[in-house]
Amino acid sequence: MPGANVRHRGRPPVQGLRERRKEQILAAATRIFAQRGYPATDLQLVADAIHAGKGTLYRYFPTKEALFLAAIERGILKLGQEVESTVAGVEDPLERIARAVGAYLDYFSRNLDTLELMAQERAVFKGRKPTYFAFMDARLGPWKGHLRTLMAQGRMREMPLERIVDVVGDAVYGTIVTDYFAGHRKSPEDQTRDLLDVVFHGILTAAGRKSIPSPEKRP
Description:
By secondary structure, this protein is an all-alpha fold. The chain is built from eleven helices and no strands. Helix 1 packs across helix 4.
């Protein structure tokens, strides 16, 4: 019979459809987890938000935990993309550091849901290294290189790189968290200016630095 061996393959796959659907799921999950909290979020709520069945979510994420962690990772990866975009083309290492700090503070001022998920991750998954810090650790290499360059140029005093990274990183993270829990007290631009002024210039005059007491060691 003519045409008996013709195979009907259905509609051809739409290019990029899977990635767009995944992004849609993660955007909805981020919002709902942030609003309701991890324990109180049923995946049906996420499915309803994207007008899909629950089975659609499971084709992308096998468990609620996998969806939650993917939502955090999405937010942190977007942070990285914004930082890289902000410093792209900036040659001076000190300017790169300054712009990166500003990009971090600006991003989190606009993405409070990601901050909320970070707080939930720490509370729910205590035995797991937080996604934010894993992200930071994996990307320290180039920034340590900038610090070495500044020391070699005589623009930054010699000190262990880990000490600088820890102090500046803690200052930025502390500013982000404090701003979230205390409410937006300052704009990201003002926060960046104040933080960099204290980090880059310190709080003591030349005379004050001569009389710095040595920190006492506790027994």
